[in-house]
Design brief:
288 residues; alpha+beta; Thrombin, subunit H; 6-stranded antiparallel beta barrel; 5 helices; cell shape; transmembrane; MreC; transmembrane helix; MreC_beta-barrel_core
Length: 288
């Protein structure tokens, strides 16, 4: 209290000056129409600029949220379209099967939105870090996709973060198929361009065209069928000469990847455990 009194005593002339200035401006703008209009216009201009900045900030964060929503929606619609096409092609009772396909997707799959916080594309074994972890429901071996196609597989998980093994990694090996053709192969990346990968083990009797779409096959326990991978650019003979190797232009632009979704398949854990149990049973046992 003593310090406050000393401060006021020391700067009392400045305080009196500020009070008188404020009183003078108030009387000037209040009782003079011209000065009042100038003040009103200036205040409106400053307020307008402030609100404009505020609106831009709100719009920016709104676009981030909208982008996440659109990413999830794109993935959902692409998968749904693939399921409906498959139903129309393979089932005779189309009406009942279409209804079943529409109902199963939302119940079985849940998409966990995530942000890419670290990424590399020029190494032989690239890795990607996401801002979601165990507390968000992320588990090892979950699939990762974006609005334009497949991204990779969850490799490691911590409490709040996860590491993705993307397509752009020499250890990546994903089952895929040529859309509407029914031929299956393995997607691999051999380094080089981040937009080019290769599909191996396509049989020699396969019939397809350049620019046909390559999608996930659904044969693994990680990705549902029909998620976009890319388009066929070129066809090569394999090294053994008994199959084709396809050059594929990837639909995912890894150099500009920000928003992704992690696929939470409610049946994935059961399928993986069943497969591991079957592999354990097939292992040779030591004679007792």
């Amino acid at each position: 209290m003593h310090n406050l009194v000393e401060f006021l005593a020391k700067f009392n002339h400045w305080l009196v000056f500020i009070i008188l200035e404020a009183l003078g401006f108030t009387l000037l703008f209040h009782y003079n129409s011209y000065q009042g209009s100038v003040w009103f216009s200036s205040a409106n201009t400053v307020t307008g600029i402030f609100f404009e900045w505020s609106a831009k900030v709100e719009q920016f964060f709104g676009m981030v949220k909208m982008n996440e929503t659109l990413t999830r929606r794109n993935i959902y619609l692409e998968h749904k379209a693939a399921r409906l096409e498959e139903t129309l092609r393979d089932r005779t009772d189309a009406t009942e099967q279409l209804y079943t396909a529409q109902k199963q997707l939302p119940e079985r799959f849940r998409f966990i939105p995530a942000k890419v916080i670290s990424n590399s594309i020029h190494l032989k074994d690239n890795l990607m870090t996401l801002n979601k972890g165990e507390t968000d429901g992320v588990r090892k071996d979950m699939g990762v996709v974006c609005g334009t196609g497949i991204v990779g597989i969850i490799y490691q998980v911590s409490t709040h973060y996860s590491i993705v093994l993307p397509i752009l990694n020499s250890q990546s090996n994903i089952s895929c198929s040529i859309e509407k053709r029914g031929y299956f192969g393995q997607l691999r990346w051999d380094g080089g361009s981040s937009r080019i990968a290769y599909v191996e083990e396509i049989p020699r009797h396969a019939r397809f065209r350049l620019y046909d779409r390559v999608v996930t096959s659904g044969y693994s326990s990680i990705f549902p069928p029909g998620i976009m991978i890319g388009k066929i650019l070129h066809v090569y003979n394999s090294k053994d000469g008994i199959s084709y190797s396809l050059m594929v232009e990837l639909s995912t632009d890894f150099s500009n990847l920000r928003d992704v979704c992690i696929i939470d398949d409610s049946m994935m854990k059961e399928r993986i455990e069943l497969m591991r149990n079957a592999q354990d049973l097939m292992k040779p046992k030591d004679n007792l």
